[in-house]
Design goal:
Layout (H helix, E strand, L loop, with lengths): L3 H7 L26 H10 L10 H4 L2 H51 L14 H8 L2 H14 L10 H8 L1 H6 L2 H7 L2 E9 L4 E9 L9 E9 L14 E6 L13 E9 L6 E9 L22
Length: 306
Protein backbone atom coordinates (compact mmCIF):
# COMPACT_ATOMS: atom_id res chain seq x y z
CA UNK A 1 0.00 0.00 0.00
CA UNK A 2 0.98 3.61 -0.48
CA UNK A 3 2.70 5.93 1.95
CA UNK A 4 -0.12 8.04 3.55
CA UNK A 5 1.92 11.22 3.22
CA UNK A 6 2.48 10.53 -0.46
CA UNK A 7 -1.14 9.54 -0.85
CA UNK A 8 -2.37 12.85 0.50
CA UNK A 9 0.05 14.66 -1.77
CA UNK A 10 -1.28 12.93 -4.85
CA UNK A 11 -5.03 12.76 -4.19
CA UNK A 12 -7.40 14.52 -6.57
CA UNK A 13 -11.18 14.28 -6.44
CA UNK A 14 -13.59 15.34 -9.16
CA UNK A 15 -17.38 15.32 -9.21
CA UNK A 16 -17.36 12.26 -11.45
CA UNK A 17 -15.20 10.31 -8.99
CA UNK A 18 -17.51 10.72 -6.02
CA UNK A 19 -19.04 7.36 -5.05
CA UNK A 20 -22.33 6.82 -3.28
CA UNK A 21 -21.98 5.13 0.10
CA UNK A 22 -24.49 3.77 2.56
CA UNK A 23 -25.31 5.82 5.67
CA UNK A 24 -23.31 4.81 8.74
CA UNK A 25 -25.48 4.00 11.76
CA UNK A 26 -24.89 6.50 14.57
CA UNK A 27 -25.07 5.66 18.25
CA UNK A 28 -27.37 8.38 19.60
CA UNK A 29 -25.98 8.06 23.12
CA UNK A 30 -22.29 8.35 22.26
CA UNK A 31 -22.72 10.08 18.89
CA UNK A 32 -19.95 7.82 17.53
CA UNK A 33 -20.18 6.02 14.21
CA UNK A 34 -20.43 2.23 14.58
CA UNK A 35 -17.62 1.15 12.30
CA UNK A 36 -17.21 -2.59 11.81
CA UNK A 37 -13.73 -4.16 11.47
CA UNK A 38 -14.50 -4.73 7.79
CA UNK A 39 -15.23 -1.03 7.29
CA UNK A 40 -12.03 -0.04 9.08
CA UNK A 41 -10.05 -2.44 6.91
CA UNK A 42 -11.64 -0.91 3.81
CA UNK A 43 -10.60 2.57 4.97
CA UNK A 44 -7.03 1.37 5.55
CA UNK A 45 -6.99 -0.31 2.14
CA UNK A 46 -8.36 2.78 0.41
CA UNK A 47 -5.19 4.69 1.31
CA UNK A 48 -3.27 2.48 -1.08
CA UNK A 49 -5.41 3.53 -4.05
CA UNK A 50 -5.18 7.29 -3.46
CA UNK A 51 -2.15 7.77 -5.67
CA UNK A 52 -2.33 9.72 -8.91
CA UNK A 53 -1.12 13.02 -10.33
CA UNK A 54 0.56 15.12 -7.60
CA UNK A 55 -1.78 17.83 -6.37
CA UNK A 56 0.75 19.72 -4.28
CA UNK A 57 -1.30 19.29 -1.12
CA UNK A 58 1.58 18.19 1.11
CA UNK A 59 3.89 20.78 -0.36
CA UNK A 60 1.37 23.48 0.50
CA UNK A 61 1.11 22.49 4.15
CA UNK A 62 2.90 24.42 6.88
CA UNK A 63 6.04 22.80 8.26
CA UNK A 64 4.46 21.98 11.65
CA UNK A 65 1.71 19.98 9.89
CA UNK A 66 4.27 18.09 7.77
CA UNK A 67 6.12 17.27 10.96
CA UNK A 68 2.93 15.85 12.53
CA UNK A 69 2.30 13.68 9.45
CA UNK A 70 5.70 12.05 9.98
CA UNK A 71 4.68 11.31 13.56
CA UNK A 72 1.51 9.65 12.25
CA UNK A 73 3.61 7.49 9.93
CA UNK A 74 5.69 6.33 12.89
CA UNK A 75 2.52 5.47 14.81
CA UNK A 76 1.28 3.42 11.87
CA UNK A 77 4.57 1.50 11.82
CA UNK A 78 4.15 0.73 15.54
CA UNK A 79 0.65 -0.60 14.87
CA UNK A 80 1.98 -2.77 12.05
CA UNK A 81 4.69 -4.21 14.26
CA UNK A 82 2.07 -5.14 16.87
CA UNK A 83 0.00 -6.76 14.13
CA UNK A 84 3.05 -8.78 13.04
CA UNK A 85 3.53 -9.91 16.64
CA UNK A 86 -0.12 -11.00 16.70
CA UNK A 87 0.34 -13.18 13.60
CA UNK A 88 3.52 -14.69 15.03
CA UNK A 89 1.64 -15.70 18.18
CA UNK A 90 -1.20 -17.13 16.08
CA UNK A 91 1.37 -19.31 14.31
CA UNK A 92 2.72 -20.51 17.65
CA UNK A 93 -0.83 -21.45 18.65
CA UNK A 94 -1.18 -23.41 15.41
CA UNK A 95 2.03 -25.26 16.26
CA UNK A 96 0.80 -25.99 19.78
CA UNK A 97 -2.57 -27.35 18.72
CA UNK A 98 -1.09 -29.30 15.81
CA UNK A 99 0.77 -31.36 18.42
CA UNK A 100 -2.43 -31.85 20.42
CA UNK A 101 -4.27 -32.99 17.30
CA UNK A 102 -1.57 -35.47 16.33
CA UNK A 103 -2.81 -38.47 18.43
CA UNK A 104 -6.31 -37.99 16.98
CA UNK A 105 -4.96 -37.92 13.43
CA UNK A 106 -2.89 -41.04 14.12
CA UNK A 107 -6.02 -42.90 15.29
CA UNK A 108 -7.88 -41.68 12.18
CA UNK A 109 -5.10 -43.01 9.96
CA UNK A 110 -5.20 -46.40 11.70
CA UNK A 111 -8.94 -46.68 11.18
CA UNK A 112 -8.96 -45.58 7.53
CA UNK A 113 -6.05 -47.88 6.66
CA UNK A 114 -7.58 -50.87 8.43
CA UNK A 115 -4.77 -51.15 10.98
CA UNK A 116 -7.24 -50.63 13.84
CA UNK A 117 -10.87 -51.68 14.23
CA UNK A 118 -12.82 -49.27 16.47
CA UNK A 119 -14.78 -50.82 19.33
CA UNK A 120 -18.53 -50.44 19.88
CA UNK A 121 -18.19 -47.43 22.18
CA UNK A 122 -16.04 -45.61 19.62
CA UNK A 123 -18.69 -46.20 16.95
CA UNK A 124 -21.60 -44.66 18.84
CA UNK A 125 -22.84 -41.79 16.66
CA UNK A 126 -26.40 -40.77 16.01
CA UNK A 127 -26.67 -40.26 12.26
CA UNK A 128 -29.56 -39.49 9.95
CA UNK A 129 -29.41 -43.05 8.68
CA UNK A 130 -29.90 -44.34 12.22
CA UNK A 131 -32.97 -42.14 12.69
CA UNK A 132 -34.44 -43.42 9.44
CA UNK A 133 -33.82 -46.99 10.57
CA UNK A 134 -35.70 -46.38 13.80
CA UNK A 135 -38.72 -45.24 11.83
CA UNK A 136 -38.86 -48.37 9.72
CA UNK A 137 -41.22 -51.15 10.68
CA UNK A 138 -39.40 -54.13 12.16
CA UNK A 139 -40.22 -56.41 9.24
CA UNK A 140 -39.10 -53.90 6.63
CA UNK A 141 -35.96 -53.14 8.62
CA UNK A 142 -34.98 -56.79 8.72
CA UNK A 143 -35.48 -57.04 4.97
CA UNK A 144 -33.22 -54.02 4.44
CA UNK A 145 -30.52 -55.64 6.59
CA UNK A 146 -30.73 -58.85 4.57
CA UNK A 147 -30.35 -56.93 1.30
CA UNK A 148 -27.43 -54.92 2.69
CA UNK A 149 -25.70 -58.08 3.85
CA UNK A 150 -26.01 -59.60 0.39
CA UNK A 151 -24.40 -56.59 -1.32
CA UNK A 152 -21.74 -55.62 1.22
CA UNK A 153 -18.26 -57.08 1.37
CA UNK A 154 -17.75 -57.82 5.06
CA UNK A 155 -14.04 -58.40 4.46
CA UNK A 156 -13.32 -54.86 3.32
CA UNK A 157 -10.51 -53.24 5.31
CA UNK A 158 -10.55 -49.70 6.68
CA UNK A 159 -12.25 -47.00 4.61
CA UNK A 160 -11.53 -47.56 0.89
CA UNK A 161 -10.42 -44.49 -1.11
CA UNK A 162 -10.76 -42.24 1.94
CA UNK A 163 -8.38 -39.50 0.78
CA UNK A 164 -9.45 -39.67 -2.86
CA UNK A 165 -13.04 -39.07 -1.74
CA UNK A 166 -11.90 -36.01 0.22
CA UNK A 167 -10.00 -34.67 -2.78
CA UNK A 168 -13.07 -35.02 -4.99
CA UNK A 169 -15.29 -33.20 -2.48
CA UNK A 170 -13.06 -30.21 -1.66
CA UNK A 171 -13.45 -27.64 -4.42
CA UNK A 172 -9.87 -26.35 -4.38
CA UNK A 173 -8.44 -29.89 -4.57
CA UNK A 174 -11.03 -31.11 -7.07
CA UNK A 175 -9.93 -28.37 -9.49
CA UNK A 176 -6.38 -29.75 -9.42
CA UNK A 177 -7.48 -33.36 -9.86
CA UNK A 178 -7.41 -35.07 -13.25
CA UNK A 179 -8.98 -38.40 -14.14
CA UNK A 180 -5.56 -40.05 -14.54
CA UNK A 181 -4.63 -38.89 -11.01
CA UNK A 182 -7.47 -40.74 -9.34
CA UNK A 183 -6.07 -44.24 -9.78
CA UNK A 184 -2.85 -43.08 -8.06
CA UNK A 185 -4.59 -41.26 -5.22
CA UNK A 186 -6.42 -44.46 -4.36
CA UNK A 187 -3.06 -45.48 -2.87
CA UNK A 188 -2.78 -42.33 -0.67
CA UNK A 189 -2.77 -43.52 2.96
CA UNK A 190 -2.36 -40.31 4.93
CA UNK A 191 -1.52 -36.59 4.80
CA UNK A 192 0.47 -35.03 7.63
CA UNK A 193 1.35 -31.41 8.43
CA UNK A 194 4.48 -30.56 10.41
CA UNK A 195 4.86 -26.96 11.61
CA UNK A 196 8.12 -25.09 12.11
CA UNK A 197 7.81 -22.45 14.81
CA UNK A 198 10.69 -20.24 13.65
CA UNK A 199 14.05 -20.03 11.83
CA UNK A 200 12.28 -20.06 9.48
CA UNK A 201 8.56 -20.01 10.21
CA UNK A 202 6.75 -22.49 7.98
CA UNK A 203 5.24 -25.94 7.58
CA UNK A 204 5.81 -29.23 5.76
CA UNK A 205 3.16 -31.33 3.99
CA UNK A 206 3.74 -35.09 3.80
CA UNK A 207 1.71 -37.34 1.48
CA UNK A 208 2.11 -41.00 2.48
CA UNK A 209 1.50 -43.64 -0.19
CA UNK A 210 1.31 -47.40 -0.18
CA UNK A 211 3.20 -49.38 -2.84
CA UNK A 212 1.79 -48.67 -6.29
CA UNK A 213 2.50 -49.11 -10.01
CA UNK A 214 3.33 -45.44 -10.65
CA UNK A 215 6.28 -44.33 -8.49
CA UNK A 216 8.63 -45.78 -5.92
CA UNK A 217 8.35 -42.97 -3.33
CA UNK A 218 6.52 -43.83 -0.13
CA UNK A 219 6.31 -40.15 0.92
CA UNK A 220 5.95 -37.03 -1.25
CA UNK A 221 6.66 -33.69 0.42
CA UNK A 222 6.15 -29.98 -0.09
CA UNK A 223 7.78 -27.45 2.22
CA UNK A 224 6.63 -23.86 2.78
CA UNK A 225 8.67 -21.00 4.26
CA UNK A 226 6.82 -17.98 5.62
CA UNK A 227 7.67 -14.55 6.98
CA UNK A 228 5.86 -12.07 9.18
CA UNK A 229 7.94 -8.91 8.93
CA UNK A 230 6.45 -5.54 7.93
CA UNK A 231 8.23 -3.24 5.49
CA UNK A 232 9.27 -0.18 7.48
CA UNK A 233 9.24 1.97 4.34
CA UNK A 234 5.70 0.88 3.48
CA UNK A 235 3.86 -0.27 6.64
CA UNK A 236 0.47 -0.20 4.88
CA UNK A 237 1.57 -3.05 2.60
CA UNK A 238 1.66 -5.53 5.51
CA UNK A 239 -1.12 -8.12 5.27
CA UNK A 240 0.04 -10.66 7.84
CA UNK A 241 1.94 -13.91 7.46
CA UNK A 242 2.86 -14.67 3.86
CA UNK A 243 4.46 -17.59 2.06
CA UNK A 244 7.78 -16.52 0.55
CA UNK A 245 9.20 -19.85 -0.63
CA UNK A 246 8.03 -23.37 -1.33
CA UNK A 247 9.98 -26.47 -2.30
CA UNK A 248 8.59 -29.69 -3.70
CA UNK A 249 10.25 -33.06 -4.16
CA UNK A 250 11.39 -35.37 -6.94
CA UNK A 251 8.88 -38.06 -7.85
CA UNK A 252 10.61 -41.27 -8.90
CA UNK A 253 8.21 -42.32 -11.64
CA UNK A 254 8.27 -45.85 -12.94
CA UNK A 255 8.91 -46.25 -16.65
CA UNK A 256 6.00 -44.98 -18.73
CA UNK A 257 3.94 -44.03 -15.67
CA UNK A 258 4.65 -40.30 -15.34
CA UNK A 259 1.23 -38.62 -15.54
CA UNK A 260 2.71 -35.08 -15.40
CA UNK A 261 3.98 -35.32 -19.00
CA UNK A 262 2.54 -36.51 -22.27
CA UNK A 263 3.88 -37.26 -25.73
CA UNK A 264 2.49 -35.35 -28.68
CA UNK A 265 3.15 -35.85 -32.39
CA UNK A 266 3.68 -32.84 -34.61
CA UNK A 267 4.10 -32.65 -38.38
CA UNK A 268 6.83 -30.45 -39.84
CA UNK A 269 7.08 -29.44 -43.49
CA UNK A 270 10.47 -28.74 -45.10
CA UNK A 271 10.45 -25.24 -46.61
CA UNK A 272 12.45 -26.01 -49.76
CA UNK A 273 11.79 -29.67 -50.45
CA UNK A 274 8.19 -29.71 -49.26
CA UNK A 275 8.68 -33.03 -47.51
CA UNK A 276 6.76 -33.69 -44.30
CA UNK A 277 8.09 -35.44 -41.22
CA UNK A 278 6.50 -36.31 -37.91
CA UNK A 279 8.31 -35.51 -34.68
CA UNK A 280 7.47 -36.59 -31.13
CA UNK A 281 7.65 -34.04 -28.35
CA UNK A 282 7.25 -34.30 -24.56
CA UNK A 283 5.10 -31.58 -23.00
CA UNK A 284 3.69 -30.94 -19.54
CA UNK A 285 0.38 -32.60 -18.76
CA UNK A 286 -2.27 -31.33 -16.35
CA UNK A 287 -2.03 -33.30 -13.13
CA UNK A 288 -2.38 -32.90 -9.38
CA UNK A 289 1.20 -34.17 -9.08
CA UNK A 290 2.53 -30.96 -10.65
CA UNK A 291 1.84 -29.64 -7.13
CA UNK A 292 5.19 -31.14 -6.11
CA UNK A 293 7.11 -29.18 -8.77
CA UNK A 294 6.44 -25.52 -7.91
CA UNK A 295 8.18 -22.70 -9.81
CA UNK A 296 11.46 -21.48 -8.37
CA UNK A 297 11.23 -18.21 -6.43
CA UNK A 298 14.53 -16.26 -6.44
CA UNK A 299 16.00 -14.85 -3.24
CA UNK A 300 15.85 -11.40 -4.83
CA UNK A 301 12.17 -10.48 -4.61
CA UNK A 302 12.66 -7.87 -7.32
CA UNK A 303 13.95 -10.44 -9.80
CA UNK A 304 11.69 -12.25 -12.27
CA UNK A 305 10.63 -15.83 -11.58
CA UNK A 306 12.88 -18.43 -13.21
Amino acid sequence: MADPEKALDTMEVTDNEVEEVEDVEIDEQSNVAKLTPEMLAAIQGKLGSMVGTPSGYIASLPKPVKRRLKALKKLQLECTRLEAQFYEEVHLLECKYAKLHQPIYEKRSQITSGAYEPNDDECVWQSDDDKDDEELAEGVQNQVKIEEASTTDENVSGVPEFWLTIFKNVDMLAEMLQEHDEVILKHLKDIKVKFSECDPMGFLLEFHFEANDYFTNTVLTKEYEMKCTPDEDDPFSFEGTEIVKCKGCTIDWKKGKNVTVKMIKKKQKHKSRGSVRTITKTVQNDSFFNFFSPPTIPDDEEADLV
